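The passage that follows is intended for readers who have already worked through the single-chain material. We present the inputs for a multi-component assembly, then the predicted structure in tokenized form, and finally a short commentary. You are encouraged to pause after the input and sketch how you expect the pieces to fit together before reading on.
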Amino acid sequence: MLSAPLIIRDGSENPSQQEVVVMLADFSFTPPDQILAQLQARQTDGMRGMDMHGTAMSAIKSEPDLNDVQYDAFLANSHTLADPEVVTVEPGGRVRLRIVNGSSMSAYHIDLGQLEGDLIAVDGIRVQPVRGHNFPITVAQRLDIELTIPKIASAFPVLAVLEGERRRTGIVLLAGKGQVARISGIADAASPPLTLGLERSLRAAEPLADRKADRTHVLNLTGSMQGYRWSFNNVPWSKDVPPLIVTEGERVEIAATNQTMMPHPVHLHGHSFQVVAIDGHRFAGALRDTVLVPPKTTVIVAFDAGNPGWWAFHCHLLYHQHAGMFATLRYD
Ligand SMILES: [Cu+2]
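Having made your guess, compare it with the prediction:
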């Protein structure tokens, strides 16, 4: 696998701020075609099924279904916590974390530990800053977080805890000369499933103009773990599936309702969309290109059709995309 972060700067960066890129990945020794075959062969029989080694998993595993694929390692800048990347920072200095979730199937909670940060952009687009020390990030999302390093010589881990589990990865910010203590790759407690709590509170720094939708596409997220079939509106992707049609200049809304028991990060190419409603509540949310749609939830996103082309639109869990949760959107 070859992957790398691509950072496009907009000129608004503070030159006295140190930029630290953290790219997250999930790694398996099992080849992807074997993983997919195991997922497709899995029988659920009304229970939560078997893991990829054929071992029965707990039938009382709480909803929703998370982490279909059991990965062998979780990486931050290609390292596990057994030998994490250590980035030297200035005590009292300013840092801009650029966190990129390049995982195939895994979502995380970013845990800043003792540090507090301001989330200033999601998927590369500014939001009104939100202060915190714990931020969710699903597959394909990006978070820009500004921090001030305390004026002490110390090590500050930036961790990513796998959603619903204890396994984690991360890097270490080392201020001054200090020792980096060993950090366990296992957190003390399992993290909760990702929610839209943060998404509901995000507000675009520069929202779309207030405007009624000219066109709304309803997109049900459909499928099941049984046979590992995933689709939009119950039609798995094939070349015969017609594109969603829009016309240049329209305000388009896509109303995505997740009818499955798995969360799906929905991603549109060629556009940024604004999150404008969650479960019927309208608000001027973040502009971004990937939004999490948890089970039994409706998320409406809006965009102005200003970039004609034939664009992919898909769940960014790569095995879901491959299994059929993929569509296109087209205009000339
Ligand atoms: Cu999905």
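Commentary: The radius of gyration is 20 Å. The domain at 18-27+70-194 is CATH 2.60.40.420 (Immunoglobulin-like). How closely did your sketch match?
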